[in-house]
TrEMBL record:
This is START domain-containing protein 10. GO terms for molecular function: lipid binding. One of its GO terms (cellular component) is motile cilium. The gene is LOC115005931. Its main location: other. Residues 1-155 form the START domain. PANTHER family: PHOSPHATIDYLCHOLINE TRANSFER PROTEIN, START DOMAIN-CONTAINING PROTEIN. GO terms for biological process: lipid transport.
Length: 212
């Protein structure tokens, strides 16, 4: 997917995608997110969970994320890993990011383009209407939500630790150090497969915020 973000700089988009404190303000599908630890100056491991329409089970991820400024452009990528202290939870389906990435391209002083690409396995035998709904409606609305959040971010950040950006300044990163040896690649076939294929769309309660 791609969205052109007028009146938003590439650096602001980059900050919005990194700032977990601000994410709680705009990502209404999120249940929880937190950083687990850092691997290098530009790589860490984190947890993210999000709400699925009832009666589908909610999903969560543990991913290794890395990021890289490319001149005036920025790149963020992640994929799923296993961490011994963060196993699958009873009330969630552990989904798998095979490869997910954001590319932010600068289009001048006050305009940027956000590209989003993901290959993921939500696990479970999902009905076709769920896959269609996510690809046609939920994901594009999430992109627009990121854009709207980016327009408001500079004012919000001025009031909330304006100089704290550990993704830009590694010396500010207070996360515990992790070793790559603590992690293994999360393979989809090693996780439980929940059969949700029989759920009908009529009986599903959608989130009130599928959009604004």
């Amino acid at each position: 997917m791609r969205i052109v973000c007028k009146d938003v700089t590439a650096e602001t988009l980059y900050d919005v995608l990194h700032d977990t404190s601000y994410r709680r303000k705009w990502d209404t599908n999120m249940i929880d997110t937190y950083d687990i630890g850092r691997l290098t100056a530009n790589a860490d491991v984190g947890y993210y969970s999000w709400k699925c329409p009832s009666p589908l089970k909610n999903r969560d991820f543990v991913t290794m994320r890395s990021w890289l400024p490319l001149g005036n452009d920025y790149l963020i990528i992640n994929y799923s890993v296993k961490h011994p202290q963060h196993p699958p939870k009873k009330d969630y389906v552990r989904a798998v990011s095979l490869l997910t990435g954001y590319l932010i391209q600068s289009n001048g002083a006050s305009c940027s383009t956000l590209y989003y690409l993901t290959q993921m396995d939500p696990k479970g035998s999902l009905p076709k209407w769920v896959v269609n709904r996510v690809s046609q409606f939920v994901a594009p609305k999430a992109m627009r939500r990121i854009y709207k959040a980016s327009l408001k971010y500079p004012d919000w950040k001025r009031k909330h630790n304006p100089n704290l950006k550990p993704w830009m300044f590694p010396e500010q990163n207070a996360l515990p150090c992790l070793s790559v040896s603590e992690l293994t690649l999360q393979r989809a076939d090693s996780l439980e497969n929940i059969d949700e294929s029989g759920l009908s769309e009529e009986k599903t309660h959608h989130s009130e915020d599928e959009e604004t």
